[in-house]
Design a protein that fits this description.
The complex is a heterotrimer of chains A (103), B (365) and C (163). Chain A is 76% helix and 0% strand. Chain A has 103 residues and is mostly helical. Chain A has a single domain, classed as Helix Hairpins. The relative contact order of chain A is 0.14. Chain B is an all-alpha fold and 365 residues long. Chain B has one domain. Chain B is built from 11 helices and 2 strands. Chain B has a two-stranded antiparallel sheet. By secondary structure, chain C is an all-alpha fold. Chain C folds into 2 domains: 80 residues, NADH-ubiquinone/plastoquinone oxidoreductase chain 6, subunit NuoJ (Four Helix Bundle (Hemerythrin (Met), subunit A), Up-down Bundle), CATH 1.20.120.1200; 40 residues. Helix content of chain C is 76%, strand content 0%. In chain C, helix 1 runs antiparallel to helix 2 and helix 2 packs antiparallel against helix 3. The longest helix of chain C has 25 residues. Classes of the chains: A mainly alpha (103), B mainly alpha (365), C mainly alpha (163). Chains in contact: A-C, B-C. At the B-C interface, helix 4 and helix 5 of B face helix 2 and helix 3 of C.
């Protein structure tokens, strides 16, 4: 007995998801795919929050998950609006094309 | 009393599982039967409203028309556009039907009643654990029943989007984008409309909400929450893409919208998903706003099997109203539709929520 | 029974995540992400949070991903090229090594910790709303409303065509 069911495995799963998302942010070149990998990382963090909330027996973690979801929604909408504006400007979605400030 | 074969040794969990499987086996085919009956009813009622007769040749009163349609669709050639995305094309109708039927899992389809103590002649096959047991045609009781339905409705958008995108056809794609924009715009109004109901009844479970409407018909939420009921009905009509919001299906609009490229059984699946959605919102409206299986007249009992009569009557009436609207109203244009959803329906629903909240805290609604 | 469900959902989530970062076509990545989000919702339910599970599907899978799909379809995004980006394969290798290092360290720590026994858990919506509107979180709640309003206005302003 000890920690409730699945908490340990859920935390490890959240780590795996976060790592895969981080890899995607580094390796992918399409802006929208990068945004999707950021969402993946946020979901990994959400899973960790919920798992630890279950382990601690309080609901504070879940309330934080609620807020993370709201912030993620706001970030996704503004991010996609920026992507649309960028696409209108350069007609490409390659991250390497938006290096105007380099050098 | 005969315990029957080894069934009396079942654990409660196994009993629940078997009962759930039985409920699924009863409800799903019943829904499909109602779907085929609805196609006939719709065509006849629309025809009568338009001063003509409708299908009356196949079988008595044309009742075999749905079967004839089924046979025709079964033998039609199944086309797939050459440049279509094969897996997405095949998966889209499946996704649409899956989400339609999934929402059915938390809806109560009638009042709770007691299973009979004895089956007379067949009594020796009636297991002990079923005698006199409380039973209701509701597959799953979840704590957050209404939120589950809202979630599944949100997933229903993907069937449309996937269908339109997979066909690799500009008309389909535009139709899918329009349909899905319509669906998720009115989903917001739909969700807001039942916040007032949840506030007054104090629970997300549909069974509790129906129980809170017992008494007389003045307890029904269509009276106590009349603006919410109107908003719900309009949003539900838009959500299932019925006239006057049936832009995706209008023959003069974008060919056939997102299901242009679908033929034969896949088209039948998409139609089935749409009708099951319509039945789902009608059942939900009955349970949330029209008092479910309660008779509404104090003194007229609605326990047990008598409740089925009232519940079925209310659902049938709502389905008739959907058909009635189709026969009466012209279609909304796309920009009128979006303006109406965002600029009229959502503010009305939000203001009504504020009024309900004030009522619940200050005036004890 | 719960065990099987958890491992199936976890496997589905990981497979979905791998498809998200592996697929060249962003629309396939988006659909894979939807699968991951829905399996995460199942896991939230198994961890005793039905409210968060429903919210995950409603907000993430049902709204945010629809937004992603709309943008992808309207911008008519094609397959990504196979050539590695600026910095070449070496930088990609460095990225993989760094992430593996991070994951390895965190994984080692998490694998070897055991958590204390948990008290009873009541994750009903009523309890959640009591906490959400308590003085502890009320300010944050109102601030997020302003945040959403700002995001709404910002998104419209950025994406509007200058007509």
């Amino acid at each position: 007995m000890g920690e409730p069911a699945f908490v340990h495995q859920a935390v490890l799963l959240s780590l795996v998801l976060f790592a895969i998302g981080a890899l995607g942010v580094f390796l992918r070149r399409n802006v929208i795919t990068v945004l999707m990998c950021i969402e993946l990382m946020l979901n990994g963090a959400n899973l960790a929050f919920v798992a630890f909330s279950r382990a601690a027996g309080t609901l504070d973690g879940q309330v934080l998950v609620f807020f993370v979801m709201v912030v993620a929604a706001a970030e996704a909408s503004v991010g996609l609006a920026i992507v649309i504006a960028l696409h209108r400007h350069k007609d490409t979605l390659d991250v390497d094309a938006f290096n105007v400030m380099k050098g | 009393m005969n315990p029957g074969p080894t069934l009396s040794a079942l654990s409660p969990a196994a009993q629940e599982l078997i009962l759930a499987a039985v409920k699924v086996a009863l409800i799903i085919p019943a829904l499909q039967g109602v779907f085929s009956l609805m196609t006939w009813i719709e065509r006849r009622v629309l025809a009568f409203m338009q001063f003509r007769l409708g299908p009356n040749r196949t079988g008595p009163f044309g009742l075999l028309q749905p079967i004839a349609d089924g046979i025709k669709l079964f033998f039609k050639e199944e086309l797939m556009p050459a440049a279509a995305n094969k897996w997405a094309f095949l998966a889209a109708p499946v996704l649409a039907v899956t989400t339609s039927f999934l929402a059915v899992a938390v809806l109560p389809f009638g009042p709770p009643f007691k299973l009979p103590q004895t089956l007379w002649v067949l009594d020796r096959f009636w297991p002990d654990w079923l005698r006199g047991r409380d039973f209701q045609f509701q597959i799953a009781t979840i704590d957050v029943g209404l939120l589950f339905i809202f979630a599944i409705t949100a997933l229903g958008v993907y069937g449309v989007v996937l269908a339109g995108w997979a066909a690799n056809n500009k008309f389909s794609m535009l139709g899918a984008l329009r349909s899905s924009a319509q669906m998720f715009s009115y989903e917001i109004a739909l969700g807001l409309s039942f916040v007032g109901v949840i506030m007054i009844s104090g629970s997300f479970q549909i069974g509790d909400i129906v129980a809170a409407q017992a008494g007389g018909f003045w307890n029904w939420y269509c009276i106590k929450q009349f603006p919410a009921f109107i908003v719900y009905f309009i949003a539900a009509a838009a959500e299932v893409a019925r006239t006057p919001f049936d832009l995706p299906e209008g023959e003069t609009e974008l060919v056939a919208g997102f299901h242009t490229e679908y033929s034969s059984m896949r088209f039948a699946l998409i139609q089935m998903a749409e009708y099951i959605n319509m039945i789902t919102v009608s059942v939900l409206a009955t349970n949330l706003f029209l008092g479910g299986w309660h008779s509404g007249i104090p003194g007229v009992p609605s326990e047990g099997l008598l409740g089925f009569v009232f519940w079925g009557g209310k659902v049938a009436f709502l389905l008739f109203v959907f058909i009635w609207l189709r026969g009466t109203l012209p279609r909304f244009r796309y920009d009128q539709l979006m303006h109406f959803g965002w600029k009229t329906l959502i503010p009305v629903a939000a203001v009504w929520i504020m009024i309900t909240a004030t009522g619940v805290t200050l005036w004890g609604w | 029974m719960d065990q099987a469900l958890f491992y199936a959902a976890a496997a589905l989530a990981v497979v979905g995540a791998l498809v998200v970062i592996g697929q060249k076509n962003p629309i396939y990545s988006a659909f894979a992400l939807i699968v991951t989000l829905c399996s995460l919702s199942v896991i939230f339910g198994l961890l005793g949070s039905p409210f968060i599970a429903a919210l995950q599907v409603i907000v993430y899978a049902g709204a945010i991903m629809v937004l992603f799909l709309f943008v992808l379809m309207l911008l008519n995004v094609k397959r990504e090229e196979d050539v590695p980006g600026h910095g070449g394969r070496a930088m990609a290798g460095v990225a993989v090594v760094l992430v593996a290092l991070l994951a390895g360290q965190a994984g080692y720590v998490l694998w070897n910790t055991t958590l204390a026994p948990a008290p009873a858990f009541d994750a009903s919506t009523r309890r959640m709303s009591e906490i959400l509107f308590s003085p502890h979180f009320l300010y944050v709640f109102e601030a997020t409303s302003i945040l959403i309003l700002a995001a709404l206005v910002g998104a419209v302003a950025l994406a509007k065509k200058d007509a």
